[in-house]
TrEMBL record:
Belongs to the ATPase B chain family. This is ATP synthase subunit b, chloroplastic. It comes from Primula obconica subsp. obconica. F-type ATPases have 2 components, F(1) - the catalytic core - and F(0) - the membrane proton channel. F(1) has five subunits: alpha(3), beta(3), gamma(1), delta(1), epsilon(1). F(0) has four main subunits: a(1), b(1), b'(1) and c(10-14). The alpha and beta chains form an alternating ring which encloses part of the gamma chain. F(1) is attached to F(0) by a central stalk formed by the gamma and epsilon chains, while a peripheral stalk is formed by the delta, b and b' chains. Pfam families: ATP-synt_B. Keywords: ATP synthesis, CF(0), Chloroplast, Hydrogen ion transport, Ion transport, Membrane, Plastid, Thylakoid, Transmembrane, Transmembrane helix, Transport. The gene is atpF. One of its GO terms (cellular component) is proton-transporting ATP synthase complex. It is found in: Membrane; Plastid, Chloroplast thylakoid membrane.
Length: 184
């Protein structure tokens, strides 16, 4: 390390060379060459390197700005989605509660309607049975009355002769006459 610093210090003491040649002292020539190359690179490459770094910086800043804008948009969309989710959850709960109460109400309405229908059917059945009973009783009465009339007519025809028939008619006419006098 001491040799490297000594070579820098001794640069001022070098005599001017009269001719061009190779310097075989590696420790003395390397730092000089590196210093020259770096100096040329810095002098000429400073603008290019500065432009490259500025362009890179602008791309990075643009990327960050775009990322921030996208992040803001995504956060806004996320908030909207969360708000929609809350709204949908509230509506779903409302539909669930209303649905259950509506189902329960419909169930009771159906049960009540079924009971009413069964009661009506029972009433119709009873009315039908009563009607059929009355019809049967009336039919039996008519048949009994018809048979009684036929029997009475048969008895009357066999027992009545013309004279008895005329007396019966006269008696009936007399009864109708007295009934008319009573009514008037």
């Amino acid at each position: 390390m001491k040799n490297v610093t000594d070579s820098f210090v001794s640069l001022g003491y070098w005599p001017f060379a009269g001719s061009f040649g190779f310097n075989t002292d590696i420790l003395a020539t390397n730092p000089i060459n590196l210093t020259v190359v770096l100096g040329v690179l810095i002098f000429f490459g400073k603008g290019v390197l500065s432009d490259l770094l500025d362009n890179r910086k602008q791309r990075i800043l643009n990327t960050i700005r775009n990322s921030e804008e996208l992040r803001g948009g995504v956060i806004e969309q996320l908030e909207k989605a969360r708000a929609r989710l809350r709204k949908v959850e509230m509506e779903a709960n409302e539909f669930r509660v209303n649905g259950y109460s509506e189902i329960e109400r419909e169930k009771w309405n159906l049960i009540n309607s079924t009971y009413k229908t069964l009661e009506q059917l029972e009433n119709y059945k009873n009315e039908t049975i009563h009607f059929e009973q009355q019809s049967a009783i009336n039919e039996v009465r008519q048949q009994v009355f018809q048979q009684a009339l036929e029997g009475a007519l048969g008895t009357l025809t066999s027992c009545l002769n013309n004279e008895l028939h005329l007396r019966t008619i006269s008696a009936n006419i007399g009864m109708f006459g007295t009934m008319k006098e009573i009514i008037d």
